[in-house]
Amino acid sequence: MSAWIYLIIAGFLEIGWAIGLKYTEGWTRLWPSVLTLATMAASFYFLAVAVKEIPIGTSYAIWTGIGAVGTATLGIVLLGEPASMTRVACMALIVAGIVGLKLAG
């Protein structure tokens, strides 16, 4: 499997654990906490595999970018967070940065 695929998987898992944090209620709920920790571990694993072939700066920026945009999007869709034009425009800038980093190598 390509390092880029591993990096995308790591980014999606980051979305999962970031949203999962909301459901742990400060680590007071057992199963959401267990699932969140497992998702964190899996996300770090896939990131570690990806950085064997992709530069760490590129990998980390893309990983956090996927996580940030995905988490903000799910926050809007699932949690009723605000979807202001400024927020959406900033998310678009992050996506543009992710695409730019991928194209740069």
H/I helix tally:
4
Q: Please tally the β strands and state the result.
A: 0
What is the helical fraction, as a range of percent?
A: over 70%
SS strand fraction = under 5%
Order of helices and strands: HHHH
Query: Ends: how far apart?
Result: 17 Å
Structural class: mainly alpha
On the 0-100 scale, what is the average pLDDT?
95
Count of folded domains: 1
Major beta-sheet overview: none
Radius of gyration: 14 Å
Subcellular location: Cell membrane
Membrane topology: Multi-pass membrane protein
GO molecular function: transmembrane transporter activity
Family: Belongs to the drug/metabolite transporter (DMT) superfamily. Small multidrug resistance (SMR) (TC 2.A.7.1) family. Gdx/SugE subfamily.
What can you tell me about this protein's structure?
This protein is an all-alpha fold and 105 residues long. The chain has one domain. Helix content is 83%, strand content 0%. The chain is built from four helices and no strands. The chain is flat, with a radius of gyration of 14 Å. The chain starts with a helix and ends with a helix.
